[in-house]
Amino acid sequence: MPAFKGFPAEAIEFLRELEDNNDRDWFKANRERYDTFLLEPARALAEQAAGVHPHDSTVHLLLGRIELAAGRPAAGVDELRRALRLDPLLVAAHRCLGYALVATGRFAEAVEQWDQWERLAARSEAELAQLDAVRRAKTAAQTLSGAGAGLHG
């Protein structure tokens, strides 16, 4: 990964345009710009931070989130598990790991992560703001996990 050299001016322009065009179709049409001007520099910065602070759980949480945003959920799972090995109480990592596990088809494991997240989320108002979304995702994962068990069992 190249060294972090800052975010290019195109990143600011992209964000300004996104503010005016905040919809799925616009983002889909501009996904390459997002990847190039925001996601890749963010990854370079996070990887540089991980090199300096390899035992910082929040750095690995950030890397996991970046991998998810880049469409690499398996790599996201690895980084998020690393974050949780470093800090098992890192609430956001449990939530994000649930989403990453769903993206890799591991629905029962996702439900377990969200169960753990719910136990810990009471400590964080920011995380509690995600409660409805996580519960909807958890219900869907439970349904898919059950359907998968019926297909494979």
What does this structure look like?
This protein has 153 residues and is mainly alpha-helical. It has nine helices and no strands. It has helices at residues 9-20, 24-29, 31-52, 57-69, 73-86, 91-103, 107-121, 125-128, 131-152.
Helices and strands in order:
Blueprint: H1 9-20, H2 24-29, H3 31-52, H4 57-69, H5 73-86, H6 91-103, H7 107-121, H8 125-128, H9 131-152
Give a short summary of the structure:
With 153 residues, the protein is an all-alpha fold.
Radius of gyration from CA coordinates: 17 Å
Sheet with the most strands? none
Can you count the beta strands?
A: 0
Total count of helical runs of at least 4 residues: 9
Instruction: Using the alpha-carbon principal axes, give the shape.
Output: globular
Q: From the helix content, strand content and strand pairing, which structural class follows? A: mainly alpha
**Beginning-to-end CA distance, first to last residue:** 43 Å
Q: Could you give the order of the helices and strands?
A: HHHHHHHHH
Strand content: under 5%
Quaternary organisation of the protein chains: single chain
Poorly predicted runs: none
| Relative helix content | over 70%
Provide the residue-averaged pLDDT: 93
